[in-house]
Design goal:
The structure holds 2 protein chains of 2 kinds. Chain A is an alpha/beta fold. Chain A has helices at about 5-60, 95-110, 120-130, 145-160, 215-290; strands spanning about 80-85, 115-120, 135-140, 170-180, 180-190, 210. Chain A has one domain: Pyruvate Kinase, Chain: A, domain 1 (3-Layer(aba) Sandwich), CATH 3.40.1380. By secondary structure, chain B is of the alpha+beta class. The chains are: A alpha/beta, B alpha+beta.
């Protein structure tokens, strides 16, 4: 009868529709979370910008400050990578791209040094744990990035650096460009390079500040905070990128599901046509046989 | 009184906690308290963990606990950057008391793995929070 084949198609269509419902819901959730992540990133700008501006200004007037975090080491033995990934998948190539960026950096570094990974996010942890490269893991930090978490990570890294467990540290995260584009980037975290003053702005005035205590001393107290703020910034960007990537991936999945459903419906209709044609042929054939008998 | 006010901004990594005109402020500078009024000279100062006080346009004194950082004063805008800052009225006094006792116990017990600097900072933070909440 018009039976088995068509029923099978119906079952498969329903299954694809169910998946589509999930991908559509995930797309909408990601969109909402993206908006929140962008708001957090926006809210962090005044702090980050002021800190950077002040550091640059202090660095410009302090010539020979010495701080362990600024010390470039002659003898580099171990390089650390702080990798900010998602805790979950289903976000396209987001996690893979970040991990590939780290692997390429390690590959490119021809000094043949030991490498250690500090993972922020479960996906990087899972990947590097299999390779026995994880120095420290910070996972399950949730969708709301908190500065307290960033500071804890910064504290770990600064300790490892000052104890000479790590001699260079890089920060790897995805920069959020737009919903469709997130770009993995690597920035040097330690030894610290103080930000440079933005001299492109014509209106920059030379202001004679009073410093209390001295500019050098203020600079030294701000350096560890700068590490924290860089990590916080990377986590915020990473979060926005993750949700952007997931939104795009789930949008594509929803569209693909539409296509599959269309194809299945077409095939189902064809199968039903064929079944009907078969039946008609059967009946006609039977009638012919009777007539001839 | 509007002529004698200046802008105070208290900025943390997560938000701008406060931004309003004030009549004067006293910040916990690293080398002692710093009082700021309108037309202060350009200043950059390191801040200690402690209590920041200000008087709003209505003449009411308010307190905030800040966890150190720095302050920049220019063109009648005082911008305080701190990793954490809390309004006195928002502080959970019971929690702050518990934190203070915990830190004191840790400092007294002097266990081998004690990170002295960290324990002292924790105690200082707890005390400043209690002071900001005017519970000490």
């Amino acid at each position: 009868m018009a039976g088995a084949g068509v029923r099978e198609f119906k079952r498969r269509i329903r299954s694809v529709q169910n998946t589509q419902q999930i991908t559509r819901a995930m797309e909408m959730v990601a969109a909402a979370k993206l908006r929140r992540a962008q708001e957090s990133a926006e809210a962090s700008r005044p702090y980050t910008d002021t800190l950077q501006g002040t550091l640059a200004r202090l660095a410009a007037v302090s010539f020979d400050v010495r701080h362990p975090l600024l010390d470039k080491r002659e003898d580099v033995r171990k390089v650390g990578y702080v990798v900010v990934t998602a805790d979950r998948g289903l976000c396209g190539a987001y996690n893979t791209n970040l991990i590939r960026t780290v692997d390429e950096a390690i590959e490119r570094d021809d000094r043949g040094l030991e490498n250690g990974i500090i993972t922020v996010g479960r996906k990087a942890r899972d990947f590097y744990r299999k390779r026995n490269m994880v120095d420290a893991e910070f996972i399950g930090l949730g969708d709301d990035v908190s500065y307290a978490d960033a500071r804890e990570i910064a504290q770990y890294i600064m300790n490892a650096y000052e104890n000479e467990e790590l001699d260079e540290v890089y920060l790897v995260y995805a920069r959020f460009i737009n919903v469709l584009r997130q770009e993995p980037i690597i920035v040097q975290l330690l030894p610290l390079e103080t930000p440079e003053e933005d001299t492109s702005d014509e209106s920059t005035r030379v202001i004679d500040y009073l410093y209390e205590p001295s500019a050098d001393e203020i600079l030294l107290t701000l350096l560890p905070k700068y590490v924290g703020s860089q990590i916080y910034h990377a986590m915020l960007e990473g979060k926005a990128s993750e949700h952007g990537a997931r939104m795009t991936a789930m949008g594509n999945a929803t569209e693909n599901a539409n296509e599959i459903i269309e194809n299945l419906e077409l095939a189902m209709n064809k199968a039903r046509q064929a079944a009907i044609t078969d039946e008609i042929l059967d009946i006609v054939g039977g009638a012919e046989a009777l007539k001839n008998a | 009184m509007a002529e004698s006010t200046f802008m105070l901004e208290i900025v943390t990594p997560e938000q701008i906690l406060f931004r309003d005109e004030v009549q004067f402020m006293v910040a916990p500078g690293a080398e002692g308290e710093l009082g700021i009024m309108k037309n202060h000279a350009p200043l950059v100062a390191a801040l200690d963990i402690g209590v920041l006080r200000y008087e709003n346009t209505g003449g009411t004194q308010k307190r905030m606990a800040v966890s150190g950082g720095f302050m920049e004063v220019i063109d009648n805008v005082a911008r305080v950057l701190a990793e954490t800052a809390e309004r006195g009225e928002d502080i959970d006094v019971l929690r702050a008391k518990a934190a203070k006792e915990r830190a004191e116990r840790r400092l007294q017990a002097r266990e081998d793995n004690l990170n002295l600097a960290r324990a002292e900072m924790a105690l200082k933070r707890a005390i400043s929070r209690l002071k900001a909440a005017e519970a000490l």
